[in-house]
Design goal:
By secondary structure, the protein is an alpha/beta fold. The chain folds into two domains: about 5-110 and about 280-295, 2-Layer Sandwich (Nucleotidyltransferase, domain 5); about 120-275, ATPase, nucleotide binding domain (Nucleotidyltransferase, domain 5), CATH 3.30.420.40. The chain is built from nine helices and 13 strands. Strands 1, 2, 3, 4, 5 and 8 form a six-stranded mixed sheet that branches. Strands 11-10-9-12-13 form a five-stranded mixed sheet, sandwiched between helices. α7 crosses α8. It starts with a strand and ends with a helix. The mean pLDDT is about 90.
């Protein structure tokens, strides 16, 4: 009999959760705004657990995907630049009556993509674009979560001495192609009234020239960063995840052209570049599936 678990995907703006069984979300997805304090965050998690305990049982294992560095061996959240208060929470004490496992959010999202879509025999790179830009890889049957490695493609340098990144460095791709970066540039060059990256992509779809140029020029830089990853890791499939993946068609042509023009010996390789098939769900699926495998 397959195990049911609670998958919780913590993002910079929302927390999404659901019951996971057999690599699928089997419940309605619960969405809450991401709190800005430790106490509010603990309260939000308690709301999630209470809801799904009523649907499953009070012993259901919890898989938690969080933005930040995670020590998988001891389940400790070592630090998060997005939500600094996470490292101060003793989750094992908070949910002492049940199994709980922690994963980096992009690692969990990649696990969701791989296992939900039957990609276990492939070498895969996930570029997850939300507020920031994260990445994870799956090579020869091993995921970055198993190797305890932090795959930080968002901090590959694409412009020497370029824009300041939230990490403190200069010229990182995250400072050019991420939700935060695109929105800042759109407000500077088009209008301060642009409320979201979705609004920017909608403008580009409607033919607004500046919006299209912002997206295309930065997608070209993203292509350079991804090509560097392909050259280093030798992956055959690149998945674009995160909410921006829902607008993949807006920047796919420029992105694919940039990737292919920068990959070493492209003619001898077969590269698939595609949007996520599980947008909004892959982190929940991955967190829930991985905790079901952990034996906890």
């Amino acid at each position: 009999m397959s195990k049911i678990s609670i998958g919780i995907d913590v993002g910079g703006t929302t927390i999404k959760a659901g019951l996971v069984e057999d690599n699928k979300v089997i419940s309605e997805v619960m969405i809450l705004p991401t709190p800005s304090s430790q106490a509010e965050f603990i309260d939000a998690l308690s709301q999630i657990v209470v809801k799904f305990d009523n649907l499953a049982d009070s012993n259901t294992a919890i898989g938690l995907a969080v933005p930040g560095l995670v020590n998988i061996a001891n389940g400790q959240i070592m630090g998060s630049s997005t939500l600094p208060f996470l490292s101060k929470i003793q989750f094992n004490e908070l949910f002492a009556d049940r199994p709980i496992t922690f994963y980096n959010d992009v690692d969990a999202a990649l696990a969701g993509e791989v296992f939900a879509n039957g990609l276990q025999s492939e070498n895969v790179l996930l570029i997850n674009i939300g507020t920031g830009l994260g990445s994870a890889f799956y090579l020869n049957g091993l995921g970055s979560w198993q190797l305890d490695l932090a795959a930080e493609a968002g901090h590959l340098k694409v412009i020497p001495n370029g824009r300041k990144c939230s990490c403190g460095g200069d010229g990182c791709i995250q400072a050019y192609f991420s939700g935060r970066a695109l929105l800042l540039e759109a407000r500077e060059k088009i209008s301060r009234e642009i409320a979201s990256t979705k609004a920017l992509f909608d403008l580009a779809k409607a033919g607004e020239a500046t919006a299209a140029k912002i997206i295309e020029s930065n997608a070209s830089l993203l292509g350079v960063a991804i090509a560097n990853c392909v050259n280093l890791l030798g992956v055959e499939r690149v998945i674009i995840g995160g909410q921006i993946a829902s607008s993949f068609e807006v920047f796919s042509t420029e992105l694919e052209a940039s990737i292919k023009s920068n990959i070493f010996r492209l003619k001898e390789r077969k590269i698939i570049i595609e949007p996520s098939k599980s947008i909004g769900l892959s982190g929940i699926i991955g967190a829930g599936y991985l905790v079901s495998l952990s034996g906890k």
